[in-house]
Design goal:
alpha/beta, seven-stranded mixed β-sheet, 7 helices, globular
Length: about 200
């Protein structure tokens, strides 16, 4: 791992190189057992018309993005872990899956110039970012949104990223909090709750 500022996920996989494979197989097993893994995708799907452009930021092995593709959307997924992206390509062909750090997100440079109607960042991804890159990640999200586009970020409490800090970082990145929930199935947010789903947009857009 040669990056000057590796993500917390990369730090974890450096210590335990088999972690990524375990993660992939865990969700493959859950899917095979019929577990409902589409909660995040249902919420995002309700936000946009058919054929929307959706960025799955921190896509992992493609669980959320693939479900959105099945529902008729154009999906690009980006994740820092090549093992997870390889699994996404194997299990969910048809979408675009790219290896990359979302703190350095620049999809036009990769030939994907069109912006996104929604960016979804689920699965506690923001708690696995490289320390100090949270505002930059949110700035990159803002830069990749189409006019009127929104970003949806979900993560749990007690993971080293306080909800108030996230709200402050979003404001610094030029995003406003449009909606807060405590679950992906639309239960209201409570400040003392253990999970946050935040819908962010560009002020005045």
């Amino acid at each position: 791992m040669s990056k000057a500022n590796p993500t917390r996920w990369e730090q974890k996989t450096a210590v335990n190189p088999s972690h990524s494979t375990w993660y992939v197989e865990r969700f493959r097993a859950m899917a095979a057992q019929g577990a409902d893994l589409a909660g995040e995708a249902r919420l995002v799907d309700a936000m946009v018309p058919r054929g929307a452009r959706i960025l799955d930021a921190g896509s992992g092995p493609g669980r959320v993005g693939a479900e959105l593709a099945v529902r008729g959307h154009v999906v690009v997924g980006v994740d820092v872990d090549p093992v997870l992206i390889e699994a996404a390509e194997a299990d969910h062909p048809g979408s675009t899956w790219l290896v990359g750090d979302i703190a350095e997100l620049d999809l036009p440079a990769a030939g994907i110039a069109e912006p996104f109607d929604v960016i979804v960042c689920a699965g506690n991804v923001v708690t696995f970012l490289a320390p100090g890159t949270e505002v930059e990640v949110l700035r990159r999200f803002r830069a990749h949104l189409a006019p009127g586009g929104r970003a949806v970020v979900g993560f749990g409490a007690g993971r080293g990223y306080a909800f108030d800090a996230f709200f402050a970082d979003a404001a610094e990145a030029g995003l406003e909090v449009q909606l807060t929930l405590s679950t992906w199935d639309l239960r209201p947010f409570a400040e003392d709750g253990d999970f946050l789903v935040a819908v962010l947009g560009v002020p005045g857009a």
